[in-house]
Amino acid sequence: MHQKYYTVPRMTLVALALSQAFASQALAQVAPVEANTVVVKGLRASAESSLSIKKNAMEVVDSITADDIGKLPDPNVAETLTRLPGVQGYRYGGEGASPGGNGSGMTIRGLSNQTASQINGRAYFTAGSREFNIEDAVPAMVAGIDVYKNPSAEHVEGAIGGLINLRTRNPSDFKGFTAVLNGNMRYNDLVRKKEPEVSGLLANRFDLGGGSRIGVMAAFAFQKTTSRNDSAGTNGGMNYRRTVRGDSAEYASLAAANTGNNVALPMSKYVGRSDITYLAPVDVIPAAGTVTPNAVPDTSKLTPAQAANIISANTLGPWPSVESIARTRKALNLGADYRVNNTLRFYTEGAYTSYLYNQNYLFTRIFNDYGGNVQNLTLTPFTINEYMANRNANGGSNDVVTTQRALGGTFLNQPIGTWGGDEHSLYTTWNVATGVEWSPTPALSLKGDINYIRADRIKDNRRVEMGNAPGQYFDITRVNQNWNDGHYTDIHGNDWSDPAKFVFQKYSGDGYQEFHDNGAATALSGIYTFEDGFFTRLKFGTRFAHQTNRFFDKNPYNGGKWLTTDGKPLAADYSNAISAASKPGVLGQAPTNMLGNQNGYTGGFVVYNPDALLGNQVAAQFPQANIVPEGSYPEYELGRRYLNENTLAGYVSTDFAAFDERLKGNVGVRVVRTKSQATARVLSDPAQATSPLIDNTKTTTYTNVLPAFNVTYDIAKDFLARFGYGRGMTRPNLDLLNPNYSYNFGNGTANVGNPDLSPQKADSVDLSLERYFSPTNYLALGLFNKDISGFFSQLSSCGMPQNAVSYTGPSNGCSNGQWMVSKNVNAAKGYARGVELSGQWFFNDKDSWLKNFGVAGSYTYVDTSAPLNIGTNTAPIFIDAQQNFVSKNSYSLTGMYEDSKLSARLVYTWRSSQNRGYNGLIPLFSTYIGSYGLVDGSINYAIDEHLTLSFNASNITNTAPNRYAGEVQTMETGREYSHMDNGRSFSLGLRYKF
Length: 994
Prior knowledge:
Layout: H1 13-21, H2 43-56, E1 61-65, H3 77-81, E2 87-89, E3 91-92, E4 95-96, E5 106-108, E6 111-112, E7 115-119, E8 122-123, E9 142-148, E10 162-168, E11 178-188, E12 193-209, E13 212-233, E14 240-245, H4 249-257, E15 276-281, H5 304-308, E16 310-312, E17 319-341, E18 344-366, E19 372-385, H6 386-390, E20 400-414, E21 416-441, E22 444-468, E23 474-479, E24 488-492, E25 502-529, E26 535-553, E27 561-562, E28 587-589, E29 606-608, H7 617-621, E30 641-658, E31 663-683, E32 693-716, E33 719-730, E34 741-744, E35 749-752, E36 760-772, E37 778-799, E38 819-842, E39 853-869, E40 878-881, E41 889-898, E42 902-911, E43 914-917, E44 927-929, E45 932-942, E46 947-954, E47 963-967, E48 971-981, E49 985-993
Parallel strand pairs: 7-10, 35-38
Antiparallel strand pairs: 1-9, 2-5, 3-4, 5-6, 7-8, 9-10, 11-12, 11-49, 12-13, 13-17, 13-48, 14-15, 14-16, 15-19, 17-18, 18-21, 19-20, 20-23, 21-22, 22-25, 23-24, 25-26, 25-27, 26-30, 28-29, 30-31, 31-32, 32-33, 33-36, 34-35, 36-37, 37-38, 38-39, 39-40, 39-41, 41-42, 42-45, 43-44, 44-47, 45-46, ...
């Protein structure tokens, strides 16, 4: 008999957690609420709830549950997720973030940009993306987070990495009237600014008699954080220079030829000086065959002595910069349910998030790239070989190219400029849903759910660029070492804070873009419980979903607007220049505590005030620049893209049990049909740039079959083994499906979008052992392997794209008028495999003085293979590379204390180096993020049963994810590309609960 599967259970703490965790599945059994509230409260109770989800799930899942209303463990949801095994997060500006605001920012089991996002079991996305940017989420609104690593057939498809489900509060969480108000004040010791955070919740339940009741709930949150990202950025790549001493005959000859007294060239006043060295530019071998340009020095015109003086100026910089990042998050959750009786329930709920990312960036630009004349130049060993320069594209031996790099000196007469910029990126996402749960018989449960989602994003990035006034130069004393090895920069010889030393150059920016998305889904599902036999439950369902993506490019800053007296480019003699000193009201200064005053130069350079960029202020200051007024930006129609996508999915899955339920599992399949219609604006006649624009629309249809099998065996009581197999899919990013095209009639090449791209697919296998010692204590070891096919690569081949005319120009390697066409295709295979180890232990009364303490930890090893094309588009050569933003090793350690009044938590999270971006042709232009560890902590004190005082500290050791030149594992040079400082953040708050 399997009576327990359909008799109505009591709504205990565990039952609630499970019902939330499996909100995406078919109807969970309707149950009466006990007389006690089921809100999780306290560290130990939170751990017990999360562990119950893990233990009782059929799939591999890890969860985090808030230890009270509005009390997720961290001030940032992304940072909370990184405490889980197998989960890593991108970090920027002192917080968990997404790279460039795209994707979720999370990596699950070695796969980034390949996760799916849900809220209460429903698909959730950020405008312009298939993922939800976790950076948007407000921690106070989250009741818990579940990460499914091998989702079963019931889950919505779309992620080969994993599925992140955010759980919010719902009316069923509360026994009666409940009111909570949280208030916090945040402070960053680098910004030195206080910011507010407030959240609240109201909920009540009204009993109508006869088992009927109505529950209502409303919650809101507002959070603002301001952080800094100070950095000492540098130049990447080889940056070849040839040293020419001031007391050499060559220097004297070059100085004599410098009749214009160009300060960037050898000068007569330095002739004969042994302390002066000219860093001459070095030609490189031209492109020929597979030889990469800008890679290997061309010594054919140099003497052996001159060739021997070639050095590298790799990472010589830096360019001091400050980014002040204000993040404002708002959220609203509403929910109501009407429970007619124990067999019928109606519900409705809605969630709204608004996230404003506002970055003021103050950048410096040194235009000679630290060339020209240097006083007291010093060198240090640094070997660059052909592989570092061009992956030894010529073949043969991996010869050494240079053996030394510039270490330090005073770089004379450097022209310097500054940028004052502002970016406003506003993300809004809201979701409404309604549905019904009905159990017509004790064995059958049915559910219908309808939801609608709308997501918008507007990104506006603008700046004013200034350059040095005529004859105004700066001397820069530099020690080109890593931060901990004596890094130093000092700027002198002129006053960088004096506006008279600068002129205005351009009004420019990275563009104005709009994303407008919406979606809707209707899901019907059910569970039928068998009374006897091997199979215990049959789960089935169908889902129809629609998603629309609209992208508009309105870049009023394209090419820049010259801020000169006549609106024309800055004249060589500066005759049309406008002095920065003439407009003091629009200027500002960089902070004077840059990089914690540890860099030598501490800041204070003059810059265009980012606040003076807003609205039409720049246009009013420079009427001759013909700046387009805000609100009247013309659209760049060739950048427009539309995508309409419909999916129809159905699944069937059955649970089974044997050997007195020591063996349990499920087997199922999900079949999903995807139909997409992509539209781009293109020229009706590609040969005529002024021809009318037309819509180019392509329709693609494909079907995927996604089987899943999970089984758990109880080796002994509370000691279980799991095995899982599943096939998953990740659809291409929305922009990759754009059917646009462009032609170069000069060389016969064409670039086209590919709306026929297929999803990436992965066959996943999981094997784990889990030992549960108590409701809070456990130890688990898991192995996983994902074999992935269909990685996207841009390749070229001869062909005739749509609407193309025959090519008649110089040879492009194709015949019969064909074009050399480049496009993204599903080209290669890869994998992600590794080990996860996790555990948790709370001591009890038997452990004497340790009874109030607890510890938790997790470790992940992951090895990934992603195809990297180191050849050309026409002759691809794929090698195995690591996925970007993936650390091979990572771990998290947590210490906890809790008694009746006080609770405290200290967490250390560490990850090894990770690739930030590959350059397929020139490895030394690649960059990676070095290993780093963060320490965070919190303390909560219950003043009485209603009022709690809380204190949180983030990044206690003031550690930042510094960037380096090179590639993870194969070429970690250890040379800092950009050193960063984000400061420490603290918050103090009160929580009152009625």
